[in-house]
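Thread title: Can someone regenerate the structure for this chain?

I was given the following input by a collaborator and told the matching structure tokens would be attached. They weren't. Posting the sequence so someone can regenerate them.
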Amino acid sequence: MSITWHVVPPNSKRIVGSLRDTGYEFDMAAADLVDNSIAAGATTVLVDLDMTLLGEVRFTVADNGSGMDEAGLLNALKYGSDERADAASLGKFGMGLNTASTAFAQRVLVTSRDDASAAPLTAILDLTEVEREWPVGIEVNPSDLDLRLLEAAAANGSGTVVRWDIVDRLQKDYKDPGGAAARKALDRLREDLRDHLQMVFQRYLDHGDGRAANVDIFLNGSQLFAWDPFAEGLAGDLVLSEEVSVEISRGEHVPMLVRAFIMPRKDELDPSVKSQVNVSNELQGIYVYREGRLIHSPSWLGMWGKEPHVSLLRVELSFDHRLDRAFDVDIKKSRILLNPQLRNFLRDELLRGPRQEAIKRYRKGQSTVGRSEAAANLHDTSNHSIADKSGTIDQPVLESVNEAEGTAQIRNQFGSTEVKQVAPRVPGRVFVESAESIEDGLLYEPAYIGQNLGVRINQAHPYYAKVYLPNRNSSVTIQGLDSLLWALASAEYRSTSDSTRQLFEHIRFDVSMALRKLVEDLPDPEPTDGSEED
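Best answer:
Regenerated them for you:
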């Protein structure tokens, strides 16, 4: 057999055209450029996305990393650049800069210097110049714009600027490229990018997190802050933490950390942390981290679909570069393929318990109070929920409060009238609270609790003891009961007047007496921690 080998150069224009269609999303592409900055040892990264008056989109990433000389710049813009010496580098592939940038822009300009005494140079990759070769231009006199961007990030030291020019694939074609619609769309892209970077580089942005180097990232001049999907120390409940040994070759194993967190239900969240935790169906799933960087947005990796009753469960898989092949990490660092053995182990064994617990908490809610806690805490979840939604429900107008007299003046469709007002027993916005007793033994009474239209519930009424307390560990049930009584109180105050006040009081009296009889045959509540409830 006689074989003659021939060198057959690829058609560079067609290849580059194909690489523009690799499926990059903008936020993923931007994160890839930030990867390169971090891989270069940057401690400051400036990301800018804006639009000129004429509607030209500009996107830049500038850093104070180690920078590059001419040879480094040429290598950086080479498809399939030289392999990095550090296998753990975030810039894992030699095509990320090019493919990420040309997916959205026809020209990529990289301005850099590797030393304070070195003159900056600009390397240019221009797709309009690519025919059958792979030309990269070097400009020894960088533009004033690129120099300003470099100085902003690196001052007089080393650093790099990546700038996209002729950005033709980021937004659709608008009739008026600089008009309100185009600018609004760019604003949405910027906000999505902010959220993405704060999640992807959370461990780098959090200077108290020792799992990654400290990096400050700014987007259009505003500093980004870490967003922890697991809300550690804030609201997330760690229910699993296990190191799993993954075989990468015969006899060689590498550890992978698996942790599972269950978020509180939305209505169980303290309002002060609700925006930080962001409980939603889309955020459930497995978060995959490589070298401290999130490389895969939450999904169940083909094990399950995203179902509402599992929305509280978030799982962390963390590994280092040694498992790249085991997980088949792609050029965009976005595809993760689990081998069948590992997938089955996670699905059928390790994550089975956390998943079942998350479903249970979703359906029942977390334990609202401990066995020994006071009944006053029983209504916390309801107060958070009503505070969140009360603004959307019609209510009378609160005109004045006389705390000394315990009265409030309200105005509804029937005029102005005086109603009861009490000081809240606990700090915060209170809409539902229990009382040791209520006049005439009523189950409930409407009252303004502080400045809020609320309902007071009688702990001494047998309905409270036999219906509320046995369900203390189901916040869903407690919230349902509280919501009903609060809605009745709200409706009463929307319709009451001096002439109808007594009628509403009689209705509450009749309801309370009827409920006394209806719960007579229900079991008495069990003592808690050796003592009776208040």
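The chain has three domains: 12-221, 237-364, 375-518.
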